[in-house]
Amino acid sequence: MNINYDKEYYNQALNHTLHENNIGFFDNLTHVFMVDTGIEEIASFDEDFDIFDDIKRIS
Fold this sequence. Notes:
By secondary structure, the protein is mainly alpha-helical. The protein has helices at residues 3-20, 25-37; strands at 41-43, 56-58.
């Protein structure tokens, strides 16, 4: 794993958490990682993921 990518994921997630939406940091971090790696579905009971149009939550 490249540390520069990790740092960028954290920076993007922090920005989303502070300025763009009302969900938690780790949900944003998961979303940033999923989008960057092309993952389109997540198995979760966490309804916070429903705010994203570019991923689908499977419960």
